[in-house]
Amino acid sequence: MDGGFLPSALDLARFQFAFTVSFHFLFPAFTIGLASFLMVLEGLWLATGRSVYLDLFRYWLKVFAIAFAMGVVSGVVMSYQFGTNWSAFSDRIGNVIGPVMGYEVLTAFFLEAGFLGIMLFGLERFGKRLHFTATCLVALGTLISAFWILSANSWMHTPQGYSIAPDGRFMPEDWWAIIFNPSFPFRFVHTVTAAYLTTAFIVGGVGAFHLLRDSRNAGARRSFSMAMWMAAIVAPIQILIGDMHGLNTLEHQPQKVAAMEGHWERQRGAPLILLGQPDMAAEETHVLLEVPKLSALILTHELNGETPGLKDFPPDERPTDVPLVFWAFRVMVGLGTLMATLGLVSLFLRWRGRLYDTRLFLRAAVAMGPAGLLAVIAGWVTTEAGRQPFTVYGLLRTPESVSPLASPAVAASLLGFVLVYCVVFGAGIWYLFRLFGQPPHEAEPGPDENQPIRTSGITPAPAMRHAAGGHHAGP
Amino acid sequence: MEEHLPLIWAILIATAVFLYVCMDGFDLGLGILFPWFTHKDERDVMVNSVAPVWDGNETWLVLGGAGLLAVFPLAYATIFPALYMPLMLMLLALIFRGVSFEMRFKAHSERAQTWWDRAFSWGSYVAGFCQGIALGALVQGIRVENRAYAGGWWDWLSPFSLLTGLALLVGYGLLGACWLIWKSEGALAAKARHMARRLGVATLGFIALISLIMPFLQPAFFQRWFTLPWMVLASPVPILVAVLAWRFFRAIDATEVREAEAPRDPTGRGFRWRDGAPFLYVLGWFFLSYTGLGISLWPNIVPPGISIWEAAASPASQAFLLVGAAVLIPTILAYTGYTYWLFRGKVRVGEGYH
């Protein structure tokens, strides 16, 4: 049944996983931060009674509703794909990471889904206290979800706390060691911080877009200001966190770091290759631009420290696509540097009182709107392509993990995913941009402005103005 | 304790799948009924009646998948590749269905809204049909060699699996109609009653047909149903279905009488527990059919050859997740119930959730 003209079922399955997980992660990367942002906005509204926070809350809640729905439906795909396409992997490691994912569903997915309805539809109907509780629980749920799934993912990079049964299955020995495996704390902090920055840059980009049209728009000013504080404070911290994560990777996955650096030889005082092209056939990197000793300094914190090279490892234990790891890493670091720079410039402009009307800066902020999303995807490509040729690092190879499926079956499903994701999520992203295009304004309607409540003429505006005044707005 | 873990988990996973079938069943059922409810107001009420809860309903499907990976990894690793095509189609259909909840209210033109309505309805059809196919293909058996699926990628397709696919579509449609009887009023509820009566007859027909075919699919099933003492133990199942059927049609009539007698509630949300009776009786049918299925398959999780003990994860894995599940599942049920309670009552035309 195998069509000879198709790529192998393994390559198709790998591409399908990469495609679906990358598409999926765009949405949680945004909604993890957005849920916390909404919690902060509603909290500020309750604390200060200032209506600008409620307006912003309603504005971003509409965005959240769409982004979250897209995250949910693309996430359901992931929970089935381990079984459909990676069944050998599932059978071998199900004992270890299955329960970790089970805890994600029980502690996070239900919490988010259970309180999302109240968060989206319940402010007028159920009152402020219950509604704020729901918002907090949804935000908490997104973080708990990140905790478990990143623990499971990190275990695949730095497995510990297991034994291997005679039939090759991984058996749990120490749950604490499994969950808090060596790369998990770094990956968790790095990824959640990345999600917060992703949200900050989208919020900042949308705010800047509206400030370019009307620099007096109160909602745009407030959200832009909040976003730029995040950029100024968190983006530089993220660079430090990333450095620590990199050192952790050097300790546990040295060949990945060698691929990220484009280093083939173990050496002392290694240069940092800024631009170049790794050549896998020649086992060398054609260097265009490098800074002497800097790689050694970053990785060992010594000018003449020793760093590993890819040739330290047999060819079948090196990342299978070194240029991909090398370039994805540069995209992530480059974007991170730009994000931190934008944040620092914002501090200067804020000090000079020109934050909201420096047009060049606002344009740069608009252009940087998707920077977080791109950096997050580049980071994931770096770490996951760098884990190859293993699914469980050093222990289980990717070809041993795949399902015994015929290529035409995987090709058909892959085609289905590409078509459906482009149509559905393309439309979703188009609607998101429509929402972004509308400036935040006073007495912002709720997430369902086109729901029948308006066509029937029962406008909730009086209740909202009432609520906006910070007084009791019970059902 | 250790030897009981697979049994406890089999019950828990079966419960999660059953809760999914009940809860997403009526969500999908609304999409399945869409072709008969063409007016925008009707469709708005239908979608609004589940908008606050559909996401939670679908999460039980995720728990079914992740739970299987955690505690029956061999079942996860053999059933899913065997059902590759129907599962992939189901996932794609659920994407259309899920995003349509948000999109149909965001659509700025009538044409766009029509397309999102179609996405909602077609997504519901394909998802429900594929779930039924998956069920039928599982019951017919999955070929496993060396802990891996050993069949082809079209093995799931058979007259029986197509029959179970159709049956589940009709059953979901019935759940959707009964949900509408509970959650709507006036002309919409009257239409739902009309649909529910017809779909009720059709569902009973499918239950009878599948029950007659099942024992002949595998010798083990036949033995289960037609030898003592199993025959005695299993006999209440069809009898109870018949009793519930009689109660079901009576209950629909009763909701009609109540609606005619009760003046339209001008202030409250017209919440009446007893309007939920037809819905609960149908859940009873689903429960009994599901139990009948369990009686046939027991103790296998991957028929014909892999039992729950053979598929089970190590006791350490099962125990670790069970500790959490013992606390978390009751908590989840509590706050899910609370959300349903908050959003109780009739949804009216021209009324969104605000």
What topology emerges from the helices and strands here?
The complex is a heterodimer of chains A (475) and B (354).
Chain A: H1 9-48, H2 51-85, H3 87-121, H4 123-126, H5 128-157, E1 162-164, E2 170-172, H6 175-179, H7 184-213, H8 218-252, H9 254-261, E3 267-268, E4 272-279, E5 284-291, H10 294-300, E6 306-307, H11 322-351, H12 359-367, H13 371-385, E7 390-392, E8 396-397, H14 407-437, H15 452-455, H16 461-468
Chain B: H1 5-33, H2 40-50, H3 54-71, H4 73-82, H5 84-106, H6 110-140, E1 144-145, E2 148-149, H7 159-183, H8 186-213, H9 219-226, H10 230-234, H11 236-261, H12 277-297, E3 300-302, E4 306-307, H13 308-311, H14 315-342
Helix pairs in contact in B: 1-3, 1-6, 1-7, 3-4, 5-6, 6-7, 7-8, 7-12, 8-11, 11-12
Description:
The complex is a heterodimer of chains A (475) and B (354). Chain A has helices at 9-48, 51-85, 87-121, 123-126, 128-157, 175-179, 184-213, 218-252, 254-261, 294-300, 322-351, 359-367, 371-385, 407-437, 452-455, 461-468, and strands spanning 162-164, 170-172, 267-268, 272-279, 284-291, 306-307, 390-392, 396-397. By secondary structure, chain A is mostly helical. Chain A has a two-stranded antiparallel ribbon. In chain A, strands 3-6 form a two-stranded antiparallel sheet. With 354 residues, chain B is mainly alpha-helical. Chain B has one domain. Chain B has helices spanning 5-33, 40-50, 54-71, 73-82, 84-106, 110-140, 159-183, 186-213, 219-226, 230-234, 236-261, 277-297, 308-311, 315-342; strands spanning 144-145, 148-149, 300-302, 306-307. A two-stranded antiparallel sheet of chain B has the order 1-2. A two-stranded antiparallel sheet of chain B has the order 3-4. Chains A and B meet through helix 2, helix 3, helix 4, helix 14 and helix 15 of A and helix 2, helix 3, helix 4, helix 5 and strand 2 of B.
